[in-house]
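Sorry, can you check?
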Amino acid sequence: MSTVQDALPVPRARLLQRPRATTGVWSWFTTVDHKKIAVMYGATAILFFVAGGIEALLIRLQLAQPNGSVLSADAYNQLFTMHGTTMVFLVGMPIAAAFGNYLVPLMIGARDVAFPRMNMLGYWVFLFGGLFLYSSFLFGDAPNGGWVNYAPLNSTPMSQGFLPGHGPDFWAVGIILLGIGSVATSVNFIVTILNMRAPGMTLMRMPVFVWMILVIAFLTLFAMPPVTASLIQVYLDRNFDANFFNAAAGGDPLLYQHLFWIFGHPEVYILILPGMGIVSEILPVFSRKPLFGYAIVVFSGIAIGFLGWGVWAHHMFTSGIGPVAQSAFGLATMLIAVPTGVKIFNWLGTVWGGSVRLASPMLFALGFIAQFTIGGLSGVMHAIVPADTQQHDTYFIVAHFHYVLFGGLIFAVFGGLHYWHPKIFGRMLHEGLGKLMFWLLVIGFNLTFFPMHFLGLEGMPRRTYTYGEGLGWDTMNLLATVGAFVIALAVLVYIVNVLYSTRRGAVAPADPWDGRTLEWSTASPPPEYNFAEIPVVSHRDELWHRKYTEDDEGRLLRLPAGGAVDTAEGHGGEGHGIHMPSPSYWPMVLAAGMPVLGYGFVFKNWWLVALGVAVLMFGLYAWAVEPPTEEHADGGHH
């Protein structure tokens, strides 16, 4: 053994040595532990959620009464553009990455993800990309052309454009940066799920949540290139008169819409499928029943992923695409409602006849079903071309997509946060505060967004920063503004609950909810290596079958040693003998070059571009030649 150790190369360059810190603040900058990276993803996404919520409150204050004067027209445009951008790209996608990063390895019985450093790179690109976008406020030049950034409004050259300034450039470059991080994370999920499952865990034994992460990883992988291409074209149009979208010079403004929405509609499912996966894990646990129709739920999720590529032009029914295309995309939009509806009935079938416990995670899951169903029903209405034409660009559309994405994803996310909090942090959240938050969120959400259906039907357009008296919109807008502040109160209750549980929450056992999947078979929080011994899987809901059996009459019986917790007693600390990836700061350095590059492109400062490329290449080179061994105090290598 000593001969082998002597043969290993000793790191010579001090600069390229791996960081030593495994605890403390610095360890969070260098960690490649999927669980720590997940916590950073989640915490950052929640901070952006608060920022997006503050933007929404300012928007609602402006619209609370006719002729509002809280915001100027330009400030309003900047806030609603950044609100939409934040909630889609800086909250919805990263919160899915947070849950996926933490849970996927634990649920499939793996010790880590396939590419730990690339996982870290994905997080730092997301963080720097988000800060890059928000730094536009410091320059007084935030994006102000809507979160879809339509051409030719945002693509006309700055010298003659409708939107002078650098706001659209910040948006285009920022979304490209965020897309790089999303693709890196997606590749990691795909390789991890397909190659690192525990022995015996076939694809049809995987938890539904893992399936949904796999589907959205493929969706992201194929959806990001079209929008990246369109944003590069926007940048070239604005800064170099490229004329991709300039109709007067032979370009086509509708090309942008096609490129954007062929990303944008799969994006809707990238945002909602993780919520469906979370709910599919919560309902069986709190109904004490297996998920009803597991295979149908899985294949419905896959079907949504496939069909999601064939519905993008229902966003373009008013753009003159012609009756044949309208008919085809209208039919596809109706068809995609089928697997979604199937899932809803499967969830209801899971709860039906179960021994239901209305703990806070279960309340959020049930709330998800109710709100998402309303959003789905109003979505099917938009498959009818005449109805869509009437409602297009009105507040009815705002109501619809908030019922899908807030009523769906955000309710599921808060359900997941309450459900897995004890696993992640080792403390139980306060149940009373959890239920209080749920009811405040339900009331505030419906008070905010349900009136918007009526505002849309009465003709209130989207993206308007003010409206006159006597239009009949006053009361509904005031109700929506009151509801927005109730939502803010609900989020405040959640933050108080987290802070309270950090100090005074009950210490969580390994399996506080009597769970069904493998993450509950290890300690709370799990050790760095997840499992002392890789589990061998023989059933779907493996942990449940380790804990229970049935008697001759079908009644559950608890097995005496069932569900033993894999805590690696006596094998913890440095002596556990399990090799884990070493920490590294080079992915962070590599990612830090990207916003520098971004500023160079936005301001057309080629020295900044050169500096960004230099930082990026240095980080990439140092990562590639990073010493493969780590010298310990005893002189050995690890």
Summary: The radius of gyration is 25 Å.
